[in-house]
Write a structure and sequence with these properties.
By secondary structure, the protein is of the alpha/beta class. The protein has one domain: Rossmann fold (3-Layer(aba) Sandwich). An eight-stranded mixed beta sheet has the order 2-1-3-4-8-7-12-11, with helices on both faces. Strand 7, helix 6 and strand 8 form a beta-alpha-beta unit. Helix 3 packs across helix 4 and helix 4 crosses helix 5. The termini are far apart. The structure holds thiamine diphosphate, iron/sulfur cluster and magnesium ion.
Length: about 325
Amino acid sequence: MASNLADITALKPKDYKTDVHNDWCPGCGDFGILNGVHQALAKLQLDPSKVMMYSGVGCSSKIPHYVKTYGVHTLHGRSLPFSTGSKLANDELTVIVAGGDGDGLGIGAGHFVGTGRRNTNMTYLIHNNGVYGLTKGQASPTLKLGMQTKSLKLPNPNEGLNPLAMAICSGYTFVARTYAYDAKHLSATIVAAIEHRGTSFVDVLQPCPTYNNLHTKDWYGEEIDVEGVKMPRTYYLSETDYDGVVKDSTNQQDVERTKAKALERVTISEDRIPLGVFYQVQQSTYMDRVRENVEPLRGTTSAKLPICDAQGNPVTDLTDLYKEFRTDIY
Ligand SMILES: Cc1ncc(C[n+]2csc(CCOP(=O)(O)OP(=O)(O)O)c2C)c(N)n1
Ligand code: SF4
Ligand SMILES: [Mg+2]
């Protein structure tokens, strides 16, 4: 692993690949997403020793094993508190979180909302395949009402939730959708998400050929009839007149109007699927706010604070803490 970017002439996508055996099913959309991550890291020439990847549990959550950066395969639904903690400890890291729709929007839904409120500077990719792939294809929270994928005995009795609407309402400051097999759009979206200063959420539509026989690669790729005209199922927001980027984030009216417009845009029901950035705003991050209130962290990051003197004695002054807990009762 490279330790210093100065030693590197130019990193290629293959330099971010590992030799770890990959056991995803042939044709799984996770391969496309993995490729998008490799491409994005190379495009940004990120030093692998300064990148952390986190995941929860699921097929998709195996991704940190296949990316040559630091990585932690955490617990089901718990990748976001881990990644937030690492930014708190060392804000200089580039942090990318990836995992399934079940992981992030089922068991991890509380953390999904809490993460939006903080606006920590990191990127969260959800592999959205409509199923719990690893546990044999149960309906995930994004599978729509009445859909019956091949492992389900009956049609889904629950309404599917909308990850983009959830992200906008929770406070994510970059909200986008892309598709696992649209290599160019996918890697460009991941690059934009990493470059955004704040929490970026990317909903990545991902075919699971083993358990989701409805939303297949062919289904995403086919042309559909729109008022008598054949049109590709997916299309780009950038080719429409929609613009969800807040121009002046100090103007509260601009922020509120753009957010309301974005929420309307992601909830409009249409047969075609728009890809692109639905909402983006520049706002203070969690670490900006922590630094404002925690004096020793101004201008630095916790990982750089000395913890002991030359003799190995701790240097943390606990006097104020002892005073706070001292009682004169006895
Ligand atoms: C606490 C806990 N509950 C349940 C499980 C079982 N489990 C493992 S992965 C998973 C869901 C995976 O689905 P998703 O997050 O959509 O990932 P995919 O496999 O589809 O990529 C579940 C329920 C677990 N590992 N831990
Ligand atoms: S079960 Fe589905 S999501 Fe999991 S590896 Fe196979 S194709 Fe991919
Ligand atoms: Mg899933």
